[in-house]
Design brief:
This is Conjugal transfer protein. Keywords: Membrane, Transmembrane, Transmembrane helix. With about 120 residues, the protein is an all-alpha fold. The chain folds into two domains: about 40 residues; about 80 residues. The chain is built from three helices and no strands. The model has no long low-confidence stretch (mean pLDDT about 80).
């Protein structure tokens, strides 16, 4: 009976140790693997991948810009409607929509400027 209790106590102690060690191990692993540099040489095949990403970026930028133009037009019409009413909330919502439309319209250009300044 005493051997069984000792075995169970040792087993529970081992489980507690493992429960403490596993998160510590993964934290240390993530911490040390963050600083591993990857050196990749430019090869002849990278132009294919780069051109694919560039075309995908252009498509996404066109979609975002189009949605921004729609938001901008919607905001302008909403602002024109809000001018006829005395409700300040409608006007503030219209200005927010106009601002979000402008940001969405200019987002591709903003990303280009930021990425060029980081190089």
């Amino acid at each position: 009976m005493n051997r069984v209790k000792n075995f169970i106590a040792m087993r529970e102690k081992g489980v507690r140790t493992v429960k403490k060690a596993v998160p510590a191990f993964f934290t240390a692993y993530c911490y040390f693997s963050m600083y591993v540099p990857v050196y990749a040489a430019k090869a002849a095949g990278t132009s294919v991948i780069t051109s694919g990403f560039n075309s995908l970026y252009e498509i996404v930028a066109a979609i975002v810009s189009s949605i921004g133009q729609l938001l901008l037009l919607w905001g302008v019409f909403e602002w024109a409607t809000a001018l006829n009413s005395q409700d300040g909330t409608m006007q503030s919502m219209a200005f927010k929509r106009i601002a979000s439309g402008l940001v969405a319209c200019l987002a591709p250009q903003i990303v280009t400027v930021i990425s060029a300044s980081l190089k």
